[in-house]
Design a protein that fits this description.
By secondary structure, this protein is α+β, with helices and mostly antiparallel strands. The chain contains 16 helices and ten strands. It binds flavin-adenine dinucleotide (FAD).
């Protein structure tokens, strides 16, 4: 199909190769699993929601550990096109299931963060653990019950700081607090946790990050959140009660949020590409349906009202893809416009992909709403993206801050 040829254009060779390997895996393992019973995502327990074998195959073909440095056994990826490659792999996995994509991308993103900010001894201890166990998941814990938007804007005033507190006592950090909505939070084995270490400072100077192994005394996973979409990823909530961590498990003191750009920027790209994968699947399924299903004596696509919807779906997909390519190249090249483009991708992809899936629902009629057709799943999955990596409204505000740094960008606390 023409849309596929557009996918090819301008892709670096290694990225294309990773895309092909991932596509084969998705077609042979992921799609057959989800198709086998559309109701399984509602009936399985969090523990057995995704077969171990799928993670093992993902590991065998090398799409689980890009981001882990090669010296520790991670999949080698050209750093010059790393984010472009992440984008294409996550799009492909998401075409099969976006929850599986969520599971994987957290491993890549947190690995990139750790290789940038973790002291050498922690890298030497934990990266080999990630590599040797195909079920080893990583999580990144920022959001708290009081709300996450203040962390995204961010309001750099003490009142908007993290509620989770870390206090240094002798040679140990003592951490108290709660995190919610965390991807892989229910079943990860290693967590990056953000906490306030200076209540007098604003969030940009008073937030530190820590590496927390599962099983640390005082750390409990409270629940697996039951979500509308992305259900094959276990989203979790956790509590820290006088949790003691060795002093050397500190990653960044004070400026943890500013140093996490290496996580956030690729994060928005990957978010957009997960969206895109869902839209591509919705388009593929719809293209088949409207060229076979007959109403009014002809196949649906021959009705102009249908054709208009299909054209809109295809155009939105290409527009998301174009913006994604531009933004992921900007991140790989560390260009000054990378941040605004990343926010634009997050914004545009969240809204456009939901529209694409809405057309898919419309064109499938009643079948679209039935659990045994798979279209309602794509619509549910797409709706999740509105709130991941920041809300749509907060992302718009960030774009304006990026565009007008001297006026809107200064809004980070009371006006002078
Ligand atoms: C599936 C899923 C996975 C997630 N994974 C993770 C994860 O791995 N790690 C993690 O740390 N977090 C994670 N999150 C949390 C996510 O980042 C937050 O949900 C998101 O940033 C929004 O924060 P909130 O839900 O607290 O909403 P709130 O901040 O409470 O916002 C509520 C509403 O108020 C609006 N609002 C807030 N502030 C303003 C303002 N100043 N101006 C105008 N409007 C405003 C928002 O736009 C929104 O409409 C995940 C969320 C979901 C749904």
């Amino acid at each position: 199909m023409l849309l596929d040829e557009m996918v090819e254009r301008g892709l670096p060779e290694e990225t294309r190769m990773m895309r092909d390997v991932t596509r084969k895996f998705v077609n042979e393992h992921v799609i057959p699993f989800t198709r086998q019973n559309w109701q399984q995502e509602w009936k399985m327990t969090p523990e057995d929601r995704l077969p171990r074998r799928i993670l093992e195959v993902a590991d065998e073909i090398g799409i689980r550990t890009p981001g882990v440095p090669e010296e520790f056994g991670g999949t080698p990826i050209d750093p010059k096109t790393e984010v472009q490659t992440f984008a294409v792999i996550s799009e492909e996995i998401s075409r099969g299931d976006c929850g599986l994509s969520d599971k994987m991308v957290q491993i890549w993103k947190v690995s990139v963060l750790l290789r940038n900010v973790a002291p050498r001894h922690l890298q030497e201890k934990w990266f080999p653990e990630v590599v040797k166990d195909p079920t080893f998941l990583l999580a990144h814990c920022l959001t708290e019950p009081r709300g996450a938007s203040d962390r995204w804007l961010p309001y750099n005033v003490p009142e908007a700081a993290m509620n989770t507190r870390a206090v240094l006592k002798g040679d140990r950090w003592v951490i108290n607090g709660r995190k919610q909505f965390i991807s892989n939070g229910y079943d990860a084995k290693l967590y990056v946790v953000y906490a306030n270490t200076n209540p007098k400072a604003g969030i940009l100077q008073g937030t530190s990050s820590f590496l927390v192994p599962r099983g640390t005394k005082g750390f409990s996973v409270m629940r697996c959140n039951e979500t509308l979409g992305g259900r094959f990823m276990n989203n979790g909530e956790m509590v820290f009660e006088d949790m003691e961590l060795p002093k050397d498990h500190l990653l960044v003191e004070g400026t943890a949020l500013s140093r996490a750009g290496v996580y956030f920027r690729p994060g928005k790209i990957i978010q957009g590409s997960k969206n895109l994968g869902v839209a591509v699947r919705a388009f593929e399924e719809t293209a088949k349906y409207v060229q076979n299903y007959v109403q009014g004596g002809r196949i649906l696509i021959k009705h102009q009202a249908t054709a208009i919807r299909v054209a809109e779906m295809a155009t939105k997909i290409c527009a998301v893809r174009g913006l994604l390519r531009e933004a992921s190249r900007a991140v790989d090249e560390n260009s000054p416009e990378a941040e605004v483009l990343c926010n634009m991708v997050k914004l545009y992809a969240s809204e456009a992909v939901l529209e694409v899936c809405k057309h898919a629902m419309e064109l499938h009629g009643g079948n679209g709403t039935m659990l045994d057709f798979g279209i309602e799943k794509l619509y549910r999955d797409a709706s999740m993206f509105l709130h991941m990596d920041g809300t749509v409204d907060v992302t718009k505000f960030k774009i304006v801050k990026n565009l007008f740094p001297d006026t809107a960008g200064k809004y980070a606390g009371p006006e002078a």
